[in-house]
Design brief:
The complex is a heterodimer of chains A (468) and B (279).
Chain A lengths: L2 E10 L7 E8 L4 E5 L6 H8 L7 E9 L3 E4 L14 H11 L4 H14 L15 H13 L5 E5 L7 H16 L3 E6 L1 E2 L1 H4 L3 E6 L2 E2 L12 E2 L20 E10 L2 E11 L4 E6 L5 H9 L6 E11 L2 E4 L5 H4 L3 E4 L12 H6 L12 H18 L15 H13 L5 E5 L7 H16 L3 E5 L3 H7 L2 E6 L2 E3 L1
Parallel strand pairs in A: 3-7, 3-9, 5-6, 6-7, 8-11, 14-19, 14-20, 17-18, 18-19
Antiparallel strand pairs in A: 1-2, 1-4, 9-10, 12-13, 12-15, 15-16, 20-21
Helix pairs in contact in A: 2-3, 2-4
Chain B lengths: L2 H14 L9 H17 L4 H16 L5 H25 L8 E5 L2 E4 H26 L3 H10 L4 H29 L8 H33 L17 H23 L7 H6 L2
Antiparallel strand pairs in B: 1-2
Classes of the chains: A alpha/beta (468), B mainly alpha (279).
Protein name (chain B): Energy-coupling factor transporter transmembrane protein EcfT
Keywords (chain B): Membrane, Transmembrane, Transmembrane helix
Subcellular location (chain B): Membrane
Amino acid sequence: MTVAITDAWFTYRGEDTAALSGITFDAVSGTMTAVLGPLGSGTSTLCRLLAGQLVSRGALTGTIDRNGTVALLGDDPEAQLSGMTSHVGDESQLACRLHGHDPADAHRRARNLLELLGIEDLWNRRLDTLSGGQRQLVAVARILAPGPDLLVLDQPAQSLDPQMRVRLATVLQEFCDRGGGVLITGHQTDELTRICEEVRFLDAGRLQTATPTVRSVGIWDSRPNDDATLSTVPRSQADPLLTVRDLTVDRGSSRILDGLDFDLRPGELTSVTGANGAGKSTLLRALLGLLDRSASVTGSITVSRLGEMTRLDTLPAHARSAHLGWVGQDAGLQLSAATVVRELLHAAPLPPHRRRDRKRVRSHRLSDADSVLAEADLTGVADDHPFDLDVARRKDIVIASALMTEATVLLLDEPTIGRDLAAMNQLNAIIDSFLNRGGAVLATTHDERWANEFAHRRLRLIEGRARS
Amino acid sequence: MSPASSDTHTAVDAAEAHRPKRRLHPATELTILACSLLLVFGIPSPIVPVIILTGTVVTVTVSPVVRLRAWAMTVGLLCLPTLVVLIVVQGLFYPGTDVHVLRQAGPARLSVEGLSIAVQIWLRVSALIGLCALFGLGADSARLFDGLRRLRLPSAVAYMCASAIGLIPMIGARTRHIIEARQARGWATDCWRVRIRLLPGIVTGLVTAILLTVDQRHDVLESSGLNANATATALQDHTDGTGQSLLRILTPLVTIGLIVASVTGVLPLPGAAQLIGGA
């Protein structure tokens, strides 16, 4: 037994209600266990409790016996790297070296893990050039390399493509076979939770004793459903809102996107899937004109509004925002205001107006913000700091800020990350409402089930080319 | 090992060969940095900062790690406004009475003494910024951490310094992201007027992000083993040896010797006033 928790109660400082109540749980060597629960159920708190990171953050009662080393991978995709290193090779060796391993041994362990995870060719890459999934795998390699006794992974699969999840599952299984213990927590079932010997459910800080169904406890099942067909909603025959022809992106000598052609029609959700690092985020950034100078973009991007065609590829990024609303992969990077409502109020510039009309324009903006807050179900947290909310809610704020513009096309980068069943329903409701107003949505995702069930059209990026 | 993985490793090794291997140990670099700054501020002659700046430019030009453009942008952005301020304040409005006036227009007078002080201060500040930018742009937190620990600083102090240097690229990246986010919502951030208008929001977001990131990074490092082992190995591989150890001992000694020689008059280097006005 690596870690045994007996009747643990934990309350964060300044809070009245306990985040965890009466938890009794054993993380056993050689086994993989999953603890799933909806957002706010306490899964991340349980992870931090096991890793010993809650000592100074609140009041803890009960006993926790640790008979070995515990390594934790947190749930926030933006906070999984150490910030100490610049290259993948250095980052993946970091934990080994901090634990005092010989440099040659640290090097060998890190290399082996990157190879097992299928990302050995990233060894010399700068960390700031990695995709979200690649970043997550490097973080996994870092904490796994020193060979901890217990590996605690909070939503480890959220940024990974299905093939990579299967690969990670194999690596974790081998780790368990060598005597290590793995605890996976999250709000979704996936390829990793499927191989766990035991799946337990957490609800409002309490571990459930009965065996409920996944849906009854608010978990989203992201595993591909072979029986599912493409969204049954009829495809639109209307003229496209956005037409992309021969879109090519080169970075140095490597071609990221190779002559993409696609249309986005009003009322349609188009999903973009593909392996980690396939260029999904690059596609969205190319449409927005947000790629840096090292990338060369060719091809045409045309938007249609009220019968008028506008070439976007000749416009600067800020001018494209009149047509395209962008929600990036890391929501935290797009948030800067102190409250949710202020984020929306200052999301976009006010329309041109005379000084004497300013009061009226601002009042109009406030009423717009109120209706968008209601649409995104954010009214209850309007005065909260965006960083006090979970990853899924932060993403909702960025989606809401995109809705504050006049954009007719929404570009969503991995909107399904970190969502439980209720948050997925919330996302679908926001998208449906936007589509019903005649908008079009292009969303990248690794969630094959969501793409199968809700997208009207699907694009799969393979080696820079789009396959329908 | 399978042929595929062998091929991959060969490719990785080939790529790794492009990384500079004959670079000084960070402790040696830090020693040279500290001694150079000591010389710049310890010897009252503009010749020293000029020599140091020239050496810095040459190093940046041949360095495979630091990009000349990034270095020049950093130094230019910080040094040019300093030069303008110094010339206006010291060069044109030097308060002394016994001065050699080169040119006069109303209350402003360009004097040798004012100009010499402006040039001296500017060269020193430029050398300071140039050297720090050279080290800062060519090192990440782990490199600084290794260097400071090799110089026998306590791990906690080394960690704090390393975290601080790690904030510099983070602030740059965060600022770019915030500006990008604003651009994507219709703000014409290429225009300086718009940027200035957005500045309060950008700074607020930045401060929050920094505080959060510092906390999160510490958690990540703690769970990766920071503080777990007092005898942790270096975080990166560096070249070191007797030659560099000797260099780390001799450089401070030579520096102190040069400063003492300058102060006692054994090393008579011309001051800024002599060079400008021939006084």
